[in-house]
Amino acid sequence: MKLLVCGGAGFIGSNFVRVRMRSSDDAIVVLDKLTYAGRRENLRDLEDDPRFSFRHGAIEDAEAVAAALDGVEAIVNFAAETHVDRSIAEPDAFVRTHALGTFVLLEAARERGLRYLQVSTDEVYGSIAEGSFTESSPLRPSSPYSATKAGADLLVGGYHETFGLDAVICRGSNNYGPYQYPEKLIPLMVLNALAGDRLPVYGDGGNVRNWLFVEDFATAIARVLADGVAGEVYNVGGPDECANIDVVRRILALCDRDESLIDHVTDRPGHDRRYSLSSAKVSALGWSAAVRFDDGLERTVAWYRDNDWWWEPIRDGAYREYYLRQYGRALE
Ligand code: NAD
Ligand code: DAU
Q: Does residue 159 contact residue 113 with C-beta atoms inside 8 Å?
């Protein structure tokens, strides 16, 4: 099979491509705009494989999409702006990529009769105090990020209902693992802890996330791509939930640092308290998570410790400016 993977130079997309190339004979074309979060370095070990090719372009650019589709049988769309804090500061790109970009991809899939998988998020359901969201829970997004992701999901559903597009949606919980940009909680805290810098915890640190190792999300997406029923949504939740403050304490312990590095900083506006997904529907397709949080977190810390070639360039330049704006103090 030949796949077009949009946003394949980002964190989850690159892990998906790696897992897929290891476990199948697929040929893969990655189409990526290479925003600050998209990096060729994320695909460095795959570039010499003749089954792999890369195209630099945006999903909202219909010509770039058409040029990438030669011989392709299915589209998997990871391309997105993904950081909630950035969506609060500068929502424009979120609207453009999630609304216009998804529309362009859907049109391309419709014209050619391709299967289409939209990668989405638990954040479209909003916060849940107890229990877990199922696929029929109402959408109540809280941020410009999650609202535009929810809009994209609704557009996918509309294309299935109206045009019969062979489309499925996969909504994942919080992913973590290698190659995640260090603006997100786990890589940010790991790199700050390794450097002996302060760890900025929003509010009281009691917000709870449902942690999913990135390779487990990749195998779930592959499963839904193969066997998911057109028009259906599949939730993919991690096996363990954890409050942010406990995530940070575990990271400090893994990095041999003490808790005096923790800084409680101003909370994120509209901050969702807890996410939780029921994965019963994707489990019925034969998927289950292979990696528990304790083990995955240890592997993740080890990966960042061993791969400074990957993160050192990020911690220079534009990322320093972002950090200063976001946290009001410079990175050490
Ligand atoms: P990421 O920010 O690491 O990567 C996003 C990628 O998309 C980057 O390579 C970027 O260059 C590319 N991109 C952005 N705008 C584009 C555009 N207009 N055209 C082409 N490429 C573009 O994000 P991620 O964490 O890997 O997330 C991937 C997908 O998974 C997103 O759709 C996100 O909503 C979803 N998701 C993420 C998580 C998580 O915890 N990170 C959980 C569930 C779902
Ligand atoms: O739930 C899936 C979502 O997970 C994805 O759809 C998003 O793309 C992804 O960014 C992530 O969103 P979150 O907002 O949950 O992730 P983030 O890593 O930004 O924050 C995780 C939690 O940690 C959240 O409660 C906010 C908190 N946090 C985050 C940062 C960056 C802090 O306390 N301090 C920080 O510096």
A: no
